[in-house]
Amino acid sequence: VTFLSPAPIVHSNPFLTQILTFPDRSIRLFFCTKMARDILEPVKETSDTSSDDSILQKQQEFALELQQERPVIEGALKNYISCLEANSFTGSGPSSSSKTLLTCAKITLKAMNSLDLPSSVEWGHKYPQETDESGSDYMERLARYKVVQNLWQQCRRSEGTRVAKCLGKTTLKIAMGEVEKAVHDYFESNTSDVSSEQLGQFLDGFMETVDNCAEGSDGELVWSVRWQDCLAKRQAARKVEAQERSDRAASAEDYADQLRSALTSTTAVVEELPSDA
Fold it and tell me: In this structure, how many other beta carbons lie within 10 angstroms of the beta carbon of residue 104?
């Protein structure tokens, strides 16, 4: 490197010229390294600050998204009970009394609203990086949980505010493991009119709607903002399906009639043939 050479180097900065022409190589290297660090350090700090601002902005946007998400968990639970009652009435689902469903919903809400989520550090230890998960995806998952945990605790600390009345599906999906454990722990420590099997079936079904909101699924209804519109759309689709089945059945019957008629005509022609044919 030329600036390490003891040969005289002329520079507009006299101090720099003196350093670069100093006969001791180690001293030249020390001063040059220090100057480079002094130049690059402000750039690094500016870069880190910019990165921190970007991360903070993303967290704020995600927090706003969570706060605006609808329906909230409590509203979705009510929709879920309506779905179960409708399925029970039509025979397309297990039979459960309204009292049992309401009791299961109350246990779920009480456990959820009294739950303190662990810190992001504790949560990260409980739910470590998965085998097929990249490091950046894992850090993103931790960051999203941290936002959820902060909002959750804000709801817990605010008087008259309940988690299930403020937050929605995304929050529940991220905190699902902690919520399920809290519900079962609450059930074990309190007397109830429902069995653990009934509660487990209710809770598993509700959590399944969080992961599956595909068109035509119960999740679509449970997490729909416009319940009546979604229900009307589903009923209209069922009418179309019923009409199509009816049309196919009529077409099949017509085809069967035509086939029977053709077979009868063929038999008559065969019977009319002369014996010596």
Answer: 28
Residue 63 in contact with residue 155, Cβ under 8 Å?
Answer: no
- 166-199: pLDDT as tens digits: 999 999 999 999 999 999 999 999 988 999 999 9
Q: Extract the tokens encoding 191.
A: 């007397």
| pTM exceeding 0.85 | no
Query: Which segment, 9-18, 30-39, 91-100, is predicted with the most confidence on average?
Result: 91-100
Higher pLDDT, 245 or 156: 156
What does the block give as tokens for 211? 């992961």
Contacts 24+ apart (CB under 8 A), 198-201: 198/96, 198/100, 198/104, 199/104, 199/107, 201/94
Q: Write the DSSP assignment of 14-31 as a string of letters.
A: HHHHHHHT-S-HHHHHHH
- The percentage of residues in the chain with a pLDDT greater than 90, rounded to a whole number, is 51
Q: What is the C-alpha to C-alpha distance for residues 276 and 249, in angstroms, rounded to an integer? A: 44
Q: Which residues, at least 6 apart from 116, have a Cβ–Cβ distance to it below 8 Å?
A: 153, 156
- For residues 207 and 170, the answer to whether their CB atoms sit within 8 Å is no
Helix axes 196-211, 176-189, angle to 10 degrees: 170
Q: Which residues have C-beta within 8 Å of that of residue 22, sequence separation ≥ 6? A: 28, 31
- Report d(CA 42, CA 40) in Å as an integer: 6
Cβ-contact 22, 28 below 8 angstroms: yes
What pLDDT score does 17 carry?
A: 56
